[in-house]
Specification:
about 900 residues, Alpha-Beta Plaits, Serine Threonine Protein Phosphatase 5, Tetratricopeptide repeat, 4 domains, ten-stranded mixed sheet, six-stranded mixed sheet, 18 strands, elongated
């Protein structure tokens, strides 16, 4: 605010209402230029365009009663000195004054500057006395007539300078319409003032402008558009209240209809009152719509508050089930598509563009500033379509340790303004200090860890999370963050201790993270597939737009063979806005392959490749192989192996595709290369490669030997010593080894092995393992000479009927029982359902080579054939770079 000496100027005295002396005004400020204004005795004055500003000091009579005459007189003297300084600085002319002011300015920017400084000066003046001083302000630009009164008239009490014209009552209507602390402008004044606002300097960049629509003013034939201007945290930015002399221009259908009957009249009045008083929804925000979180503007200079306060506000908003907040990872992905650098500041413009691209309905812009010795948290809610500020909400706090509580409060207000019910806000809102940490340093480290985690830098994120835990050992979100870094790297063993620590602090987590953690914890418990799916389903029902819940539920159902439930869940996950949704598209393609929806599966894999930017992978090749497009599938697998020479997983599909092409000798070489790559991998991967290699050898003409029993014993021992997280896969490998021995050695399992397998399956609780074990147990009766009992037992195991191996065992049992037609029906099913062989996840991928080989036989009798005719060499290369021959 401009300053000036507070000496009493020479001039005329100014009086307020009831004859009260309110201060002194310079005489030269009261005089009109002779070149521009005419004396009242000199004829009709010429109208000129001026800026008129009218103010009204709110509740001045109550103020005098509260302070007393002496204190009130001192206050009003300081007020008059303030007005004088501003009048001199902004070159205004005082026309009239009492409780309010009527000033004339040559330019609109002068009136705007005076109004902004006057509001700030009143606030400081009131703060020094522990009272609240506010004024209503109206500004208009238009033609007025000015003239001097005669000396005799002035001596009799008239004003030295008179101003008349339609612009004067228009400005008065605007002033009367304004709320306390509100500055209202006409459309003409807004246009001229906004265009020249840059002359105000740096403060012009932060000015907020808002239209309040068109209004009727009594005595004015046309409607007038009303605007508001103000500064963040101070401007009310609220719709003015209608008065008998000013009311909103409403369409006819919104006007209450008068009815004759008294009851009908009361109803109509009630409707009219509701229409007038209800808040106008400026954003069409509905439940589960999305918002973009802008970067925090930290004007305090305290770097500790930069990321920590932004993260705290995000956590508070994310407790809502009504509002969805775009994740940092999604925002970064959208910035990349906008060709913006990582770290680009999310301001009003960038945030609005992100919102439009991602379908978000609002942008939330938080600001932290120090005002009058207090910390002020301000949030603007912006409509991305117009970039106009819809709401401005603020909270003040005296001490830094109250910041988290103020953020909780303002986040609740944002949720309320966007339409969330009060009951939901109270139910799903836990205080930030309880669900995060009371240490701002720990919160800043956690926020930095989130940023690094979103860049896939797991090691760096883990270090930051650990430092946050070192500061506050009760910081459950940071412990869960460490767990996620290990899980993202596939290291469940290291993740489990941190998950257990976070589980003990579950009351210190927001509801969504608590449900996520409890679901994840069941994956580490015995028989996870019996309990985890229900937990993931619950999380998805409570938070329908949380992609992780749907993805994990879909994976568990896919593994269990419940393909319809898995497809429904993964479809919900693919609809998310997360950049990692390509993982869900891949899973969707695998499920559709198992359902033999080949065209849909290809479309899903292509969508996955578009989102991730990755080339086709082994699962895409599996769809082509199931369609009989083996040369294309083999070329795709060769390319994958060349890109990822250390990835043994590719060899699982590669071996199966070569066997399907009738090239068993080549499959043996690829399988041996896969075993060599898998030596440093998990035990499950190594066993899977060995199983595929044995199938390839037997198809190439090698007779089965003792290696089958050795591999089965090794697989059982590994499964028996496995941890909970590895048990399901290793038990599946043991069952696949048992099935391989039954098929190729042609003899039943030993009693000891049979019992150990049953115990493993009981420990596992994996539905896929249970289904395959039912097949193994039933086929034991055929191999012991009772094929009819084998077929009866298979029919009783209805859950297993989706497995290729179930149909293989049924085919063999019927053939052994002499039912040639039934045996051929089963073989026709096997040959006609290659998708079941290529796509099933039950019992892992250990049975893939076996399943694919079974689809090759054209009739049941050909199953016993031991020789395989090699197919044409398609030029696919071996790992060593030699062409297949």
């Amino acid at each position: 605010m401009p300053t000036a000496p507070c000496t009493r100027p020479s001039g005329v005295a100014a009086t307020g209402c009831s004859g009260r002396w309110t201060g002194w005004v310079r005489a030269e400020m009261q005089q009109a230029s002779a070149a521009h204004d005419s004396d009242g005795m000199a004829g009709a004055p010429a109208p000129r365009v001026h800026t008129l500003l009218l103010t009204d000091l709110c509740d001045s009579v109550a103020l005098v009663e509260r302070l007393g005459d002496t204190a009130a007189a001192e206050l009003f003297q300081e007020h008059d000195r303030l007005v004088l300084r501003l009048q001199q600085h902004w070159k205004g002319r005082m026309i009239d004054r009492s409780d309010g002011l009527l000033l004339l300015f040559e330019r609109p920017v002068g009136g705007l500057g005076f109004a902004l400084d006057y509001r700030q000066g009143l606030e400081e003046l009131g703060r020094s006395r522990g009272i609240e001083l506010q004024a209503r302000t109206g500004m208009h630009v238009g033609e007025v007539l000015t003239w001097h009164n005669s000396a005799e008239a002035v001596q009799a009490g008239a004003k030295p300078l008179e101003v008349e014209g339609l612009a004067k009552p228009l400005a008065a209507r605007l002033m009367a319409l304004a709320r306390p602390g509100q500055i209202l402008l006409s459309a003409v004044a807004e246009s001229l003032a906004r265009r020249s606002a840059r002359e105000l300097g740096g403060r012009s960049e932060h000015l907020l402008w808002k239209s309040h629509g068109r209004w009727h003013f009594k005595g004015v034939p046309t409607t007038q558009e009303v605007f508001e201007v103000g500064e963040p945290g101070f401007a009310p930015l609220r719709m003015p209240r209608s008065t008998p002399k000013a009311w909103r221009d409403l369409p006819l259908w919104r006007r209450p209809v008068a009815l004759v009957a008294e009851l009908a009249l009361l109803v109509a009045l009630g409707i009219g009152t509701w229409i007038v008083l209800r808040p106008e929804p400026a954003i069409a925000f509905a439940e589960r719509d999305w918002v973009v979180m802008g970067d925090l503007r930290n004007l305090t200079g305290n770097a500790v508050l930069d990321d920590s306060m932004a993260q705290a506000f995000r956590i508070s908003l994310e407790q809502s089930r009504y509002i969805n907040v775009l994740s940092d990872m999604t925002v970064s992905d959208t910035l990349a598509r906008m060709r913006k650098e990582r770290g680009t500041r999310i301001d009003r413009t960038i945030g609005s563009e992100i919102a439009i691209r991602d379908g978000a309905r609002a942008v939330v812009l938080p600001t932290l500033a120090e005002v009058g010795g207090r910390l002020r948290v301000t949030v603007e809610v912006v409509d991305p379509q117009t970039q106009a500020t819809v709401y401005v909400l603020s909270r003040d706090v005296r001490r830094m340790d109250g910041l988290l509580a103020s953020i909780d409060s303002i986040a609740g207000s944002v949720r309320d303004h966007l339409g969330e019910s009060s009951d939901a806000i109270q139910t799903l809102s836990q205080p930030l200090p309880e669900v995060t940490t009371s240490s701002l340093d720990a919160l800043k480290l956690y926020a930095s860890g989130i940023n690094v985690y979103n860049q896939r830098r797991m090691e760096d994120a883990r270090v930051l999370y650990q430092k946050a835990v070192d500061i506050d050992p009760q910081f459950a979100l940071a412990l869960l963050g460490i767990t996620r870094t290990y899980m993202s790297q596939g290291d469940a063993e290291k993740a489990e201790p941190y998950l257990r620590r976070a589980l003990a602090l579950r009351d210190h987590l927001p509801m969504r993270d608590r449900l996520y953690m409890e679901a994840l914890a069941t994956e580490f418990e015995p028989q996870p597939l019996r309990h985890a799916p229900a937990k993931w389903r619950l999380l998805g029902e409570v938070y329908p737009d949380y992609a992780a819940a749907h993805q994990n539920y879909a994976w568990d159902e896919f593994t269990s063979g419940n393909l319809d439930a898995a497809l429904a869940a993964v479809t919900a996950a693919t609809a998310s806005k997360e950049p990692l949704r390509y993982i869900s598209w891949e899973l969707k393609g695998r499920i559709q392959l198992a359902q033999e929806k080949y065209d849909a599966a290809i479309a899903s894999f292509e969508q996955m490749e578009r989102i991730s930017g990755a080339p086709p992978n082994r699962h895409h090749a599996s769809v082509l192989a199931a369609q009989g497009k083996l040369p294309e599938a083999l070329r795709m697998l060769e390319a994958s192996a060349a890109r990822e020479p250390a990835n043994a997983l590719i060899h699982v599909q590669w071996v199966a595709a070569l066997l399907a092409a009738g090239r068993a000798a080549d499959a043996v070489q690829v399988a041996d290369a896969g075993i060599a790559k898998a030596t440093d991998d998990s035990d499950g991967m190594r066993l899977t490669q060995q199983l595929g290699a044995l199938v390839a050898r037997y198809r190439s003409g090698v007779r089965p030997g003792a290696e089958l029993a050795d591999l089965l014993g090794q697989a059982i021992r590994l499964a028996e010593s496995a941890s909970t997280g590895e048990l399901d896969d290793l038990a599946g490998n043991a069952l696949a080894a048992a099935r391989l021995q039954q098929r190729y050695a042609g003899r039943a399992l030993g009693t000891a092995d049979e019992q150990r397998l049953a115990q493993l399956v009981q420990r596992s609780g994996d539905p896929g393992n249970e289904a395959l074990h039912a097949v193994v147990a039933a086929d034991q009766w055929r191999l012991r000479g009772d094929p009819k009992r084998a077929t009866r037992q298979l029919r009783a195991a209805g859950k297993a009927s989706g497995l290729t191996q179930w149909h293989v065992a049924m085919r063999d049992g019927l053939r052994a029982a002499g039912d040639v037609q039934g045996s051929q029906r089963e073989q026709d099913w096997i040959s006609g359902h290659p998708g079941a062989a290529w796509g099933s996840r039950m019992a892992g991928e250990a049975c893939l080579a076996m399943n694919v080989v079974e689809t090759l036989a054209v009739d049941a009798a050909s199953v016993v054939a031991t020789s395989v005719v090699e197919g044409k060499n398609d030029g696919v290369r071996l790992p060593a770079g030699q062409a297949l021959h």
